[in-house]
């Protein structure tokens, strides 16, 4: 969290640049370098999505090279949505941190605390899926529990408890439902949220910021992936989005 906070302050940005590379091999290598180099100045973090690398024959090598190209001061969140029993999760954590060199991960909490805890290390960021951006998520995440609240609420409270115990635990909350962002913020007032869903998925940036920013003007990492990958000028698009975000921040961090 320290590295993230420092970067957010240094770049004066809450923008997370998503890296979901598509195209043929030569295009992808060239475009990844371009997007990283052009957007770095405006990036609070980068989020490579593991699936887009694993679908290529040399995906792990490309992922490692991608992470190495990102300036050291900018946190890299490996979006793997990992989630398995502790023994297996430990190997995913070694992959993400020790093989790939990521500073953080996304984790699916469905299997419970032991799917999350192996990722908690003093210097790492763990974002737990709580309320995702995809519409069909309601079939599981909005289910009401007999003890009260929904499954999303439960994920948020697990993430909060684990943050108190281990530190470095945030939530993934989609930008496609501002009421849900507000609900998650009420359950997790202090934690960082990774927020995908603006850009290609049509999330409302202003409503999301209003619902989710902490009083200190931080606490949200606004991710966009395709909108930057497909932009004619990724640097200009990143600058524009970072500036739009800052317009709605009540206080500079
Ligand atoms: O964990 C994520 O990053 C994630 C959670 C979520 O609720 N919704 C969501 O879209 N994502 C990821 O965020 C990125 C969104 O990409 P764009 O829709 O192209 O901006 C993809 O890598 C998704 O896998």
UniProtKB/TrEMBL annotation:
Organism: Hymenobacter luteus
GO molecular function: orotidine-5'-phosphate decarboxylase activity
Protein family per UniProt: Belongs to the OMP decarboxylase family. Type 2 subfamily.
Enzyme Commission code(s) on record: 4.1.1.23
Gene Ontology annotations of biological process type: 'de novo' pyrimidine nucleobase biosynthetic process; 'de novo' UMP biosynthetic process
Name by which UniProt lists this protein: Orotidine-5'-phosphate decarboxylase
The entry's keywords: Decarboxylase, Lyase, Pyrimidine biosynthesis
Start and end residues of each Orotidine 5'-phosphate decarboxylase domain: 14-241
SMART domains for this protein: OMPdecase
Keyword Disulfide bond set for record: no
Cited PANTHER family: OROTIDINE 5'-PHOSPHATE DECARBOXYLASE
Pathway this chain belongs to: Pyrimidine metabolism; UMP biosynthesis via de novo pathway; UMP from orotate: step 2/2
Classification via InterPro entries: Aldolase_TIM, OMPdecase_AS, OMPdecase_type-2, OMPdeCOase_dom, RibuloseP-bd_barrel
Catalytic activities: orotidine 5'-phosphate + H(+) = UMP + CO2
CDD domains on file: OMP_decarboxylase_like
One Pfam family here: OMPdecase
